Amino acid sequence: MTKNQKTKKLKTQVENAEQNDLKNQLVRVMADYDNLKKRSEDERNQMYKLASISFFGKLLPIIDNLKSAQNHIKDSGIAIIIGQLETLAREEGFEEIKIDVGDDFNHETMEVIETIETKEEKDNNNNTNMDGKVAEVVQSGWRHAGSPGLGEDGATIVRHARVKVYKYKKEEKINE
């Protein structure tokens, strides 16, 4: 092999190595760009969810006031508006936290606003322990289902349900 052929061969190897290096860099840059697009889309979706949750949290007192008015004046127009607002909330991924009197207190979805002392250890109906059971639901709670955050099943709690809870207190016997 002549000196010229060796130089040409070496030059070709260097060019091929540079091309391979550039191709590898391009593949990495394209992968980084795809990751950036995905991350940006995720952040945009997260911001939308947070804005929705914030707005709905501000709307809840209005819904509560409408429900309170409906309980007092029994107007069919108000009932329709409440129904429309609740339907819209469900369509946007919000759901009311269902709590019944007698349910166990759950700190993830409920907030105790009052404890009611009871001397009755057991419920007359089904003989269950009354201590730590919901006595009354004062204000309903709401969550945004399926979004990251606190609560059950990855749901974000928008507002904890406000409840009154039974607290069993033994009767003290007075020794005479």
Please describe what this structure looks like.
By secondary structure, the protein is an alpha+beta fold. It has two domains: 92 residues, Hemagglutinin Ectodomain, Chain B (Alpha-Beta Complex), CATH 3.90.20; 78 residues, Head domain of nucleotide exchange factor GrpE (Nucleotide Exchange Factor Grpe, Chain A, domain 2, Roll). It is 49% helix and 20% strand. The chain contains two helices and six strands; from the N terminus they run ααββββββ. The strands form two sheets. It has a three-stranded antiparallel sheet with strand order 1-4-5. It has a three-stranded mixed sheet with strand order 2-6-3, with no helix packed on it. α1 runs antiparallel to α2. The chain is elongated and about 115 Å long. It starts with a helix and ends in an 8-residue tail after the last strand. The mean pLDDT is 88.
Helices and strands, with pairings:
Blueprint lengths: L2 H71 L2 H16 L2 E4 L12 E9 L15 E6 L1 E4 L11 E4 L1 E8 L8
Parallel strand pairs: 2-6
Antiparallel strand pairs: 1-4, 3-6, 4-5
How many β strands by DSSP?
6
Profile the largest sheet.
3 strands, antiparallel
The average pLDDT value, as a whole number, equals 88
Distance between the termini: 121 Å
Q: Structural class of the secondary elements?
A: alpha+beta
Our count of domains comes out at 2
CATH domain class name of the largest domain: Alpha Beta
Q: Number of DSSP helices? A: 2
Beta-strand residue percentage: 15-25%
Poorly predicted regions: none
> What proportion of the residues is helical, as a percent range?
40-55%
